[in-house]
């Protein structure tokens, strides 16, 4: 009996540790829904040609909360557009001045993320208990836990994001122009402390705004 319990815990740990590592989301933790203000998270969907495509989706909508932003935004397209806009701004002005109101905005966003994380972890613990008690189908539990794990990661990304400073960016133009890898660009974006909102229009156009 002890072995069976240990094996079940190990299996559940494997379920909750699953992550989508095939795609990289440059704006993870800093992109928000323009309709409801909730964080948008990266996800992927399979297509008929056996290829997977990555998108940003409103975390409120996918979790059955009320939100009108129901269209998925292609992540690679948006990531590249945002990065190119940053590059262009550094070419024109040599730097970016942060919004002085962002510090308080970031604090509010982290407070919302902390409250949401608490609810998500409570839900996760409840499902694991139901699995142990045998009151939930394992396949249903696995799918729910995968979704919860993704939402938990998104909330934790917001909480771990650095606080924006009300001063001129310390990122140099050289750093921006020479950033070619995902990791380099990701570090720069986090240092800039930007916030991005995005949605997909009815005609399929990606509409976004960047707040520096």
TrEMBL record:
| One function term, GO molecular function aspect | DNA strand exchange activity
Does Amino-acid biosynthesis show up as a keyword for this record? no
Keyword hit for Plastid = no
Check the record and name the InterPro entries matching this protein: SSR_resolvase (IPR050639), Zn_ribbon_recom_dom (IPR025827)
Q: From which residue to which does any coiled coil extend?
A: 103-158
The Recombinase zinc beta ribbon domain extends over 26-86
Which keywords belong to this entry?
Coiled coil, DNA recombination, DNA-binding
This protein is called what? Recombinase zinc beta ribbon domain-containing protein
What is the scientific name of the source organism?
Thermosinus carboxydivorans Nor1
């Amino acid at each position: 009996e002890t072995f069976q319990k240990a094996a079940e815990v190990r299996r559940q740990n494997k379920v909750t540790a699953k992550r989508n590592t095939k795609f990289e989301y440059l704006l993870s933790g800093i992109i928000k829904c323009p309709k409801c203000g909730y964080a948008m998270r990266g996800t992927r969907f399979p297509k008929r040609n056996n290829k997977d495509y990555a998108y940003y989706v409103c975390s409120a909508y996918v979790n059955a909360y009320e939100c009108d932003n129901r269209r998925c935004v292609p992540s690679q397209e948006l990531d590249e557009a945002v990065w190119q806009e940053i590059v262009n701004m550094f070419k024109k002005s040599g730097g970016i001045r942060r919004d002085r109101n962002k510090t308080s905005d970031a604090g509010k966003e982290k407070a919302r993320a902390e409250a949401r994380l608490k609810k998500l972890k409570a839900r996760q613990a409840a499902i694991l208990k139901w699995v142990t008690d045998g009151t939930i189908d394992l396949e249903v539990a696995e799918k729910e836990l995968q979704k919860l794990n993704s939402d938990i990661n998104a909330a934790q990304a917001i909480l771990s994001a650095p606080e924006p400073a009300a001063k001129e960016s310390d990122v140099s133009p050289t750093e921006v122009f020479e950033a070619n890898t995902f990791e380099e660009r990701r570090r720069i974006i986090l240092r800039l402390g930007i916030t991005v909102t995005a949605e997909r229009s009815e005609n399929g156009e990606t509409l976004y705004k960047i707040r520096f």
